[in-house]
Specification:
This protein has about 575 residues and is an alpha/beta fold. The chain folds into 3 domains: about 1-230, Class I glutamine amidotransferase (GATase) domain (Rossmann fold); about 240-480, TIM Barrel, CATH 3.20.20; about 495-565, Immunoglobulin-like (Sandwich), CATH 2.60.40. Helices cover about 25% and strands about 30% of the residues. It has 12 helices and 29 strands. The strands form 7 sheets. The protein has a 9-stranded mixed β-sheet, covered by helices on one side. Helix 9 packs parallel to helix 10 (about 375-385). The relative contact order is 0.11.
């Protein structure tokens, strides 16, 4: 069973790497506008034909990255663009997938005249360069591209990143006007050419850094430069996350205790991904946390030692075995589950959270099993959990995924997403495992070049703990500090309960009910209980101030005598 699990894990981690794929754009992109923002951003994508819009994937990807900042994001394509729309925004991104031509004369004219920041990516630039004489105004031009794959690296400030095969060729005529931010380098030719340039308010990037993304990719350089494009600099900060994965009712409790001790000795807070029900249809097995009090005790021990509980699905299976199968995705065809409805998903979410709560386990963060669900499912998850830790599918297509180098404060579903970007330590021979670990550390080193980049990985409790020690020690030695997510504002909502960590304000609608509030210490012990003096009807808003590591639960009760059930 373990080997099957590892093979499946290898499959899903590999498959969700971002690939180049033409996709059909849905009628309505799930782009959530960021409220209470200061920076207005417009994303303009090009259009190829009536049915296929290849920028749909990159639009969502860029929108998610912009959720790292205080932004309001508006999206349109060149067909929808209207003259002077650009001037209503602070920053404009153009995503060009048509190789030579930008199809909007109105857009090109506005870019030519505006003083707003414009970031033009990839295609469409040759027609703009020719029609408006970029060379004269900006000091550079673009007339051709190279698809030979000769240029295999991007270099910025001495740091090397991987690059895809297609790149436009920038000719700089006036070095006084043009700042060269990054270059592309060809090892075979030992030749270096401009890759990202800036002239006045205009940036140009010579390929699409949101495609063909891999670890140590120029995607990370782009994610870092977004701070400069947007004009919102963040202090340099390098944090890390370690998550203990696939903790089902059948896991070995002592292994969890040993891991908790190892991390506590190093003063490393961690996450524990709990699956409250183990299911194996072939064996006709269904085992809950309630059926295994020893694993519950081990989970609570982890919490005492600094763990934050992550709800890692409910059963972590659709038709197969827990932790091997998906849950909200049909692994047999790698597509969304047919005829899945909202009520079914909501009932599962309620059941999973309730199973945790009745065992004194309080999940604060969500993680989608095998990082795969439909767009409809993600919207439901976000209604229950304000925060998730995972990589994301961006469309109902298993090839279209995204990993994050830093916290996304609000993604396209309005959810905060903590990054996982280094993968996991597989169950292999010692030499192969060490190779994986070295690759993980090299990728962490590249992530360190993002000014507020995270290094985040997960670990299974059946793997040799010496590997866990090695990875956390080496990540720490790079200069990363492991973060306690209980100190962050997180919110969980069911039909009956609200759970909070971090001081924040929430609203709840009461129907002639008492409001029962419980404040918990970091080890899960109760610090205090508060019951409203009389039943309340209507919407109330409360500001909850919590000490570090404290968390909070609120529940409407018709009968105060039932309060002791939590």
């Amino acid at each position: 069973m373990i080997q099957k699990n590892i093979c499946c894990s290898l499959l899903y981690v590999a498959a969700i790497s971002v690939l180049d794929a033409q996709v059909i754009i849905p009628d309505r992109l799930p782009i959530a506008l960021q409220e209470n923002s200061k920076i207005k951003v417009l994303i303009v994508s090009d259009e190829v034909n009536e049915s296929v819009k290849p920028s749909s994937f990159e639009v969502i990807e860029l929108s998610n990255l912009l959720g790292h900042f205080r932004t309001t994001v508006t999206v349109c394509d060149t067909k929808q663009y209207r003259a002077r729309e650009l001037n209503k925004h602070d920053v404009v991104f153009y995503l060009g997938n048509t190789r030579e031509i930008c199809t909007s004369r109105e857009f090109m004219n506005d870019v030519w005249q505006t003083r707003k920041t414009v970031v033009w990516m990839n295609g469409g630039i040759p027609s703009f360069s020719k029609a408006y004489n970029l060379d004269k105004k900006f000091g550079f031009s673009v007339s051709a591209s190279d698809s030979s794959g000769t240029y295999n690296q991007v270099i910025c400030k001495g740091i090397k990143y991987r690059i895809a095969r297609n790149i436009f060729l920038i000719q700089i005529s006036n070095t006084l006007k043009v700042k060269q931010i990054a270059t592309a380098y060809a090892d075979r030719l030992q030749k270096e050419i401009p890759y990202i340039v800036k002239s006045g308010n205009f940036y140009y990037i010579a390929d699409m850094p949101l495609l063909h993304v891999s670890p140590s990719d120029r995607y990370l350089l782009f994610a870092d430069l977004l701070h400069d494009f947007i004009g919102e600099n963040h202090p340099e900060s390098h944090q890390a996350i370690v998550r203990i994965e696939d903790v089902t009712p059948l896991r070995n409790p002592q292994n969890l205790r040993n891991i908790a001790d190892i991390l506590a000795e190093r003063h490393i807070p961690f996450l524990i991904g709990v699956v409250p029900f183990y299911v194996n249809p072939l064996e006709q097995m269904r085992v809950s946390l309630s059926d295994r009090p020893e694993i519950v005790k081990a989970i609570l021990y982890c919490v005492e030692k600094g763990a934050t509980v992550v709800l890692h699905g409910i059963t972590h299976q659709y038709k197969g075995e827990t932790a091997i199968d998906f849950e909200f995705w049909d692994g047999s065809v790698l597509k969304p589950i047919v005829n899945e409805n909202t009520a079914q998903i909501e009932n599962k979410m309620e059941e999973g959270i309730e199973e945790c709560l009745k065992n004194g386990i309080y999940p604060l963060i969500w993680e989608t099993p095998h990082y795969a669900a439909s767009m409809k499912d993600y919207a439901i998850f976000s209604a229950y959990f304000s925060s998730a830790i995972e990589r994301r599918l961006l469309l109902d297509d298993y090839k279209c995924g995204q990993y994050f180098p830093y916290i996304i404060q609000k993604d396209s579903y309005g959810q905060k997403v903590y990054p996982e970007n280094l993968g996991y330590i597989p169950l292999l021979r010692k030499d192969s495992t060490e190779m994986f670990i070295n690759r993980m550390i090299n990728n962490a080193q590249t992530l360190y070049n993002v000014r507020d980049g995270f290094a985040s990985f997960f670990f299974h409790s059946f793997i040799n703990n010496d590997y866990l020690k090695e990875v956390v020690d080496r990540i720490s030695a790079l200069g990363f500090s492991f973060i306690d997510l209980r100190l962050q504002p997180n919110q969980v909502r069911t039909k009956d309960v609200i759970i909070l960590s971090g001081s924040q304000t929430y609203s709840i609608n009461l129907d002639h009910s008492f409001l029962y509030e419980v404040y918990y210490n970091k080890d899960g012990s109760i610090e205090k209980k508060v019951m409203s003096k009389k039943p309340v009807t209507g919407m109330i808003t409360k500001k909850v101030l919590l000490k570090p590591d404290e968390f909070y639960l609120a529940e409407p009760l018709k009968n105060p005598s039932t309060a002791n059930k939590i």
